[in-house]
Amino acid sequence: MDIPKQIKDYCPKCKVHAVHKLKYFKAASPRALSWGTRENVRKHKKGYGGKAEFTATVKKQNKKPTFLAECETCKSKHYYRISKRMKKTELV
């Protein structure tokens, strides 16, 4: 789906509707010492425990796109998320 690079959206800092620049949001790498990462290492990667099986979960085929919107006037950033699921998005 084609999404415009600039949108008019509500800015929570300015408290007005202003023009925002959109760019793709990419999540940072997970924390190395978080509980989930430690659990994964303990169950699946450490020692001679053999091959541990993952529980079978069916993943959804597509995600709801998340963008980072930057206000043109005050330069503050907030998330802009489209509530529909889509396989491919493109900023035009």
Describe this structure in words.
- The chain has 92 residues and is mainly β.
- It has a domain at 1-28 and 61-92: Nuclear Transport Factor 2, Chain: A, CATH 3.10.450.80.
- The chain is 12% helix and 33% strand.
- The chain contains one helix and six strands.
- The chain has one helix at 35-45, and strands spanning 2-3, 6-11, 16-24, 66-71, 77-81, 90-91.
- The strands form two sheets. It has a four-stranded antiparallel sheet, with no helix packed on it.
- Strand 4 and strand 5 form a beta hairpin.
- The longest helix has 11 residues, at 35-45.
- The protein is elongated and about 60 Å long.
- The mean pLDDT is 92.
Q: What is the percent of helical residues? A: 10-25%
CATH A-level architecture of the domain at 1-28 and 61-92: Roll
What best-fitting shape do the alpha-carbon axes yield? Answer: elongated
Q: Count every beta strand, where a strand is a DSSP E run of 2 or more residues.
A: 6
Gyration radius from CA atoms, angstroms: 19 Å
What is the CATH class of the domain at 1-28 and 61-92? Alpha Beta
> Distance between termini?
10 Å
Relative strand content: 25-35%
Can you write the helix and strand succession as a string? EEEHEEE
Question: What descriptive keywords fit this protein?
Answer:
elongated, about 90 residues, 1 helix, single chain, mainly beta, two-stranded parallel sheet, four-stranded antiparallel β-sheet, Nuclear Transport Factor 2, Chain: A
